[in-house]
Amino acid sequence: MTDQNSQTLRLIFPQWQGGDNPPYYLGSKLLAWLAPPSAGPVEEVPVDAPTDVPLPVEDEMRGRSVLLKQMQEARKIIERHQPKSLAVLGGDCLVSLVPFSWLSERYGDRLGVLWIDTHPDVQTPKQYTNAHAHVLGALLGHGDPDLTKAVTRPVPAKNVMIAGIHDPLPFEAQFIADHGLRTCSPQQVRDGAQPVMEWLRA
User: Fold this and answer.
1) Can the keyword Metal-binding be found in this entry's annotation (predicted)?
2) Fewer Cβ atoms within 10 A, N terminus or C terminus of the chain?
């Protein structure tokens, strides 16, 4: 019998350009150092270390060309290993796009995404140039074409729960309402996260 852990790809992804936040680079490296040994394969997506050179805004997205190259490299690594599951050590929120896209292709409607974040990450370049705020929207099939084309099987909105969200911006609140996304507030999380439990049972 194959150990389930041996079929889990640990992907170290020190991307910082999605949030234009250099400390994410060190954070990913620290997570990789702190994590216990893995029974499965371990790979790292090549990411250039931060410098003093500002990231350019390309077609309304900061660091677009660099981010797309990193996404392509992540996809190549995942396809090479064909994992049943992934443990991603990032990195800003955009590191989740390619791994969740892969899992959506593999598991289809059986995949659920519990998005634990104070922000829903459903914006587009028209609202915000940093792509770390676009990832969940892209997973749902909405947003910038360079991101949505990386998601061949969008995750259905009914399969997504956002836990920890508070004070969404008007665009975010409208997106959540329009797509029927379920949410759980920080207070609800503190009180036992009943909305999450109900979503899991649904």
Assistant:
1) yes
2) N
Rounded Cα distance, 147 and 142, in Å = 9
pTM of the model: 0.95
Enter the DSSP assignment of 60: T
Q: Do residues 17 and 56 touch, judged by C-beta distance below 8 A? A: no
Instruction: Please report, as a single letter, which amino acid is at residue 153.
Output: R
**Start-end of H helices in 113-157:** 135-139, 145-148
User: At which residue do the structure tokens 């109900």 appear?
Assistant: 198
| Token pair recorded at residue 111 | 């995949």
With cut-offs at 50, 70 and 90, classify the pLDDT of residue 23.
very high
* pLDDT category of residue 1 using cuts at 50, 70 and 90: very low
Q: What would the pLDDT profile of 80-123 be if each residue is shown by its tens digit?
A: 999 999 999 999 999 999 999 999 999 999 999 999 999 999 99
Instruction: Name residue 143's amino acid.
Output: G
- Amino acid identity, residue 2? T
Mean pLDDT of the chain: 97
pLDDT for res 136? 99
Retrieve residue 163's tokens. 């836990």
Q: Are 123 and 134 in contact (CB under 8 A)?
A: yes
Please report, for the chain, the start and end positions of each structural domain, with discontinuous segments joined by +: 4-201
Reference 101, options 120, 86, 80; nearest CA is: 86
CATH superfamily ID and name for 4-201: Ureohydrolase domain (3.40.800.10)
